[in-house]
Amino acid sequence: MNVSTEHLLQQAHERFAVQDYYGTIHLVDEIIESGRRFADVYHLRGLALSLLGQPDRALEDFDRALGVNSRYIDALVHRGVILVELGRTAEADASFQRAAALGQVGANGFSRPVSGRLANLHATLGDAYAEVGAADDAIREYQRAVHLGPDFHDLRYRLARLLIESGRPLETREELERIVAVQPAFLDAQAALGLAHYLSGDATGAQEIWSRCLKQRPGHARVGAYLAMAQRLSLG
After folding, report:
1. In the chain, what are the helix, strand and coil shares in percent, each to the nearest 5?
2. Which range marks the domain in which residue 73 is found?
3. For 145, which of 93, 119, 156, 205 could close a Cys bridge (C-beta 3.0–4.6 Å)?
4. pTM (global) more than 0.85
5. Domain endpoint, select from 72, 102, 132
C-alpha cells in the first residue's frame, strides 16, 4: 500500500519534534524516493543532519533545498549557520545577506516569513473546514494559502486534492500542472493530474500520463488501478 507523502511528511515533523532525528531522516528519505523533491523536504533533512553533527551532509541538503527554491529564507539562514561552523565565514555572510534581502516586503505587502506563516495558517483553517465537510470554504482558504505562498507546492497539492474531490477537475488540472512543471518526479501529483484529465473528459491524455508514471515507478498501485479502470470502462 502506498502511504501518502503528506502523511509521511507529517510523521517526519513529529519525529523531529521529539528529537528523533534518525527517524526523521528515514521518513524524509521515503518521501524523496517517492519523487517528492520539494524544498521543505530537503530542508527538514538538512536540519536533522545538522543536529546529528553531520554539517557537510546538512549543507548539501540546504543547497538542494535552494536548488528547488532559491528564495527559501530558512534554508539560507541554516546554510549560513553551518558555514560558520565550518569556518567558511565569507560564504556564511553572503548567505545571511541573501536571506535578509529576501525578508523585505514583497508584492503582497508582507515579508516572505510573514507570508509563509499566514499561508500555513490559512491551510490549517482549510483543513478544519474540510474536516467538517465545508469543502468550498476549505478550497477558499487553500487558495489564499497558495496566493501567499506560490512556491509551497505541498499546499498547492492539497488544494488540488480538495478541488478534485469537489468535482472541479479543470481547476485541479491547472494547479497540478503548476506542480509537475517544477517537480516532474512527484508521482502522486502526476497520478492525480491523470485523474483530473480523465474526469474532465480527456481519457487519452489521462492514460498517457499514467503510462509515464508506471515507467518511472513500475508497480505503482494507485496508477495501476487508475489505468485498469480506464481500460475497463473503454471496453464497456
Report:
1. 80, 0, 20
2. 5-102
3. 119
4. no
5. 102
